[in-house]
Each structure stands twice: as C-alpha cells, then as structure tokens.
Amino acid sequence: MPLGLSENLSQRIVSALSLLPVVLGLIYLGGWWFFALLVVGASLMYREWCELTEVPRSPLRNIGLLAIIIPTALVTSNYFEISNAMLVTFLLGIGFVLVALPPKRLVVEKTKGRNTANAFVGVCYVSFAVVAMAWLREQDSHGILVIWLFFAVWAMDVGGYFAGKGIGGPKLAPRISPKKTWAGLIGGMALAALVSLAISLIFEYGNPVIMPALAAVVAVVAQIGDLYESAVKRALDKKDSGALIPGHGGILDRVDGLVFAAPFVAISMNIADMNWS
Predict the structure, then answer these.
(1) What is the DSSP string of 230-274?
(2) 8 A C-beta contact, residue 189 and residue 159
(3) 155 neighbors 118 (Cβ within 8 angstroms)
C-alpha cells in the first residue's frame, strides 16, 4: 500500500497540529495551568473509559473522577512532601491492579459488581498517567522533561506507522492488534531516539547519548500501553474508544502510549534517586 497521505492520515496530521500549540503552551506554563490540562484530559479519558466499558451514568462516575483529581492536585500543589517511596508505591500499586485484572475479564464477564469494578479500574488507568505527569512536570522549570516524553511517544506512533506500512513483515501481537508489526516497533524506537537526540541537543537537556537510549525504551513501554488499550477494545469488539479527535478516534486512542510511558519514567527516576544505603 502506498505511503501517500490518506484521508485518515491527513485528518490525524491536522488534528495533531491544531492541538500541539495549546498542549505545549500549557506544559511550558506548568503549575495550575498544566493541572487544568490534566483535569480536562482526565475527565475526557475517564468519561470515555466508562462509556467504553458500559459503566452507567451515576454518582459512581463523579466519585471516580474525584479519586483521580485529588491525588493529581496534591502532587501539583506540593501541599505535603511526597517521597520517592510514596510515589513509587502508588504507581506500582496501580500497575499491579491493571495487570491483575485483564481487560477481557473486566469488560466481558457479566458479574455482580461489574460496573464498580470497571469504574475502579478506570480510576486506576487514568490516575496512572495523570499523577505521573503531574510529578514529572515538577522536575524542571520549563517542562522539558514532559515535552521530551510527549515527543518520544508521538515519535513512536509516527515511526511505527510509516515503518509498519512501508516494511510490513511479522506481526507484533496479531491477536490483539493485527496491523502492528515488529518493523513498526523498531521504526518507532528509532524515530523516538532521533527526536530525543534533537531535543537533548537543542535544549542542552540531559546526556545526548543516554537520552536517545531512554527514549527507545520509553517507545517500547508506550507500545505496551497501546496494546493494553487495544486489548480492551478488542474484548468489547470496538474499533475506537470514541470519536472526539478526527482521524484519531477517542482521546484514549491518542494517549494510550502515555498512560504507560509516563509512570514508567516517573518510577525509573524515583528508583534511581532512592538512597539504598
């Protein structure tokens, strides 16, 4: 299939370019401006998750959203000092929930308490990303770390798309996402590393050797996040999580890589900084 700009790809490019200045501007401003971005994003993500997993509109949804916003606000406000161990424990605990409750079991089984379980996992899924993002934004004054993370994940998407289309080859996870290939994964990792190198050199941020290597690892984690969301949709027999963003589907389709990549970076940085003596 030719690599020309299909209608869908054109929509994706226009949507991305439209959103990019706003997102980058709020990342740069940081503080409560970035918190506002996280709240809007979390609200849309949680609503979409509830619609996707058929959680009915009820007070349960509002309670779930508060359970996402409150820890995010605490991290942003620095109301009390959050230690490395506290953040790592929180994020690893959420990660354990997501692994222990596989998507097929969650969304398919018509068991008692299913709505509560799906809402709870939705809280974990969204919190996993936004709490980590809030903490990462506090690590430097201009948000370069978060910008680096965003571009690494976006580069994974773009590189994976073109390498997968142009090279093809063996499938990465045919039962979950038949279109993804190993070539796409490698292409995404390569572009993420190149973009990371450019950011490191332009902004004189981090080590220009280490940062690209980290970006390649982050790209793999982002791909895992993409596959997790794909597994949820496949269990529900749905193509997209929603139709909010033209060419991209829902917001969960757009940020699924960040959902896993942001906590991975936050956990890694905290563990590296811990005093093990």
Answers:
(1) HHHHHHHT-S-S-SSBTTTBSHHHHHHHHHHHHHHHHHHHHHHHS
(2) yes
(3) no
